From TrEMBL:
This is Chalcone synthase J. Residues 234-259, 473-520 are annotated as: Disordered. It comes from Cyphellophora attinorum. InterPro entries: Chalcone/stilbene_synt_C, Chalcone/stilbene_synt_N, Polyketide_synthase_type-III, Thiolase-like. GO terms for biological process: polyketide biosynthetic process. Residues 351-438 form the Chalcone/stilbene synthase C-terminal domain.
């Protein structure tokens, strides 16, 4: 086939109106145990005397809006019941057991949904803030999954709660580079956090230094994964002799060939032959920004006993304040939004989107609601559901929210908003924002109805059988059972009482939440 030719003087903004970055699968894995607010009180009083700081933290703990936080163990686990807090060596061992196992489970779920052959994974982009081993945890996940030895891997650090979205942004850049070279890319994006093991270290600082540290009231354990890639007609490599990207293989579709029906048909045929399912989301654009002089407001500092959460009362106001200008900058840069939402409403209002907001805390959620004019049930349902039933799992939480949005709160025939606004905040303070388009809806308007999910039969019996098999095959030894992919069979009931937080929607605070195996 003859290559597509791009005019040599075409501006980059015209040549790449769409990134050609798609999400094919998403999965999250939670451990089977959970910690209720009152259980933290029990553990704290088991080892520490009452102090003003401790009493304030435990009072805050009762009003976070979280019912249960996912955890690799209970408050009776030996590691949090020794005379002294666990050492960094013990924390590393726990992460390498449970964090790796959870990551493998989440990855298998995302790969099962996408029907992507493991041998097709070209890159792995990972992140964590609760481990710093070398080689990183991604090395062992790749090994356990049996991915190719030459898979290109990147491990991101120093980005905390925004890590899941930062990893997606990094993957998107890699994918666009491969598209430019005319190569197919399939990137496994991983985020894993084991936070609950830091509880004794945090309690030590609260009591001995009289510090009000609320991280132990919020954080939980989880791993999540995305399969992301480009839409190419075939696997041919970009010709080595091509210069200045003047000629691109026919498989690369950009601003010129995005709507080429014949090309789309050839891409679908190529996917069918490969056995891969259709993508579920398209990434349309993203932004990243740092709020000036906020390094001391949000962080995760190195400590002899692991890490210590830095979280000041300024964070909700700071994060809410930057959203309106960043939102405007992002959505007005995406041509498709101008052609759909703006035509209908003469603007691009925040309420046009479903929001996949990282649930950093109740005040962060309510602050975003207020400044962006959102309704928690209509726009932030999944963020609240994950927050109430699982807590804040740092970098792993964002993709868990997306998994819930796409795989649990989606039934055939439901009317859904076509565009998803992803947002997360991390140390720095850094802000990640992205717009994704749902591809599982009919029509072309701002909303659409969920189509019947089609699975490609070339790779077996489809998604559900793959996930059912996964729930069996991932059952391991007693040391790794808490990291079960289908786990949470012993987890919290997730009744969603909201434990008194006035910032949660009344309807959301009474909804019955499924166990974690249903989250993804």
């Amino acid at each position: 086939m003859s290559p597509s030719v791009i005019p040599p003087r075409t501006r980059a903004s015209e040549r790449y109106q769409r990134p050609n970055v798609f999400v094919y699968g998403v999965g999250a894995a939670y451990p089977p145990h959970s910690i209720k607010p009152e259980e933290l009180d029990v553990l704290a009083r088991r080892f520490y005397p009452s102090t003003p700081a401790l009493e304030k933290v435990l009072t805050i703990n009762a009003y976070t809006g979280i019912d249960t936080r996912a955890s690799i163990g209970t408050i009776d686990h030996p590691v949090v019941n020794d005379p002294l807090p666990p050492s960094i060596t013990e924390l590393n061992d726990l992460f390498m057991t449970h964090g790796v196992s959870l990551s493998v489970s989440a990855a298998r779920k995302a790969l099962a949904q996408s029907n992507t052959p493991y041998s097709d994974i070209t890159h792995v982009v990972s992140t964590t803030c609760t481990n710093s081993a070398n080689p990183g945890f991604d090395h062992y996940v790749i090994k356990k999954l049996g991915l190719r030895q030459n898979v290109q891997k990147v491990l991101l650090h120093g980005i905390g709660c925004s890590g899941g979205m930062a990893a997606l942004r990094t993957a998107a850049g890699l994918i666009m580079g491969e598209s430019f070279r005319g190569r197919k890319a399939r990137v496994l994006v991983l985020a894993a956090e084991i936070s609950t093991t830091l509880v004794r270290s945090e309690l030590e600082s609260i009591v001995k230094n009289d510090e009000v540290r609320i991280g132990i009231c919020l954080f939980s354990d989880c791993a999540s994964a995305l399969v992301v890639g480009n839409e190419m007609e075939g696997d041919e490599d970009f010709p080595e002799s091509a210069e200045n990207a003047q000629e691109l293989p026919n498989g690369l579709h950009n601003g010129f060939d995005q709507d080429d029906d014949s090309l789309q048909e050839r891409i679908q045929e190529s996917r069918r032959q490969n056995g891969e399912n259709e993508p579920i989301l398209e990434l349309l654009g993203w932004e990243h920004e740092i709020i000036e002089d906020t390094e001391k407001d949000l962080g995760f500092d190195v400590d002899p006993l692991g890490w210590k959460v830095v979280l000041t009362p300024r964070v909700p106001k700071l994060t809410a304040g930057i959203l309106p200008p960043l939102f405007s900058k992002l959505v007005t840069s995406i041509p498709e939004l101008k052609a759909t939402i703006a035509e209908a409403a003469h603007s691009i209002p925040p309420t046009s989107f479903s929001w996949a907001l990282h649930p950093g805390g109740a005040t962060i959620l309510s602050g975003v609601e207020r400044v962006m004019g959102l309704n928690p049930e209509e726009h932030l349902r999944e963020s609240y559901e994950i927050y109430v039933s699982r807590g804040n799992s740092s970098s792993a939480t964002w993709a868990s929210v997306v998994a819930r949005m796409m795989n649990v709160n989606t039934q055939e025939g439901d009317e859904k908003k076509r565009y998803v606004l992803g947002c997360g905040f991390g140390p720095g303070i850094s802000v990640e924002m992205a717009v994704l388009k749902r591809l599982d809806l009919d029509g072309e308007g701002v909303t659409g109805r969920v189509k019947a999910r089609k699975t490609n039969e070339a790779n077996g019996d489809g998604l559900m059988n793959g996930l059912q098999a996964l729930d069996i095959s991932d059952r391991g030894s007693s040391t790794s059972r808490s990291s079960d992919a289908g786990g949470d069979s012993t987890g919290g009931s997730g009744t969603g009482s909201g434990n008194g937080s006035g910032s949660l929607s009344p309807n959301l605070s009474t909804v019955a939440l499924p166990l974690a195996e249903d989250v993804d």
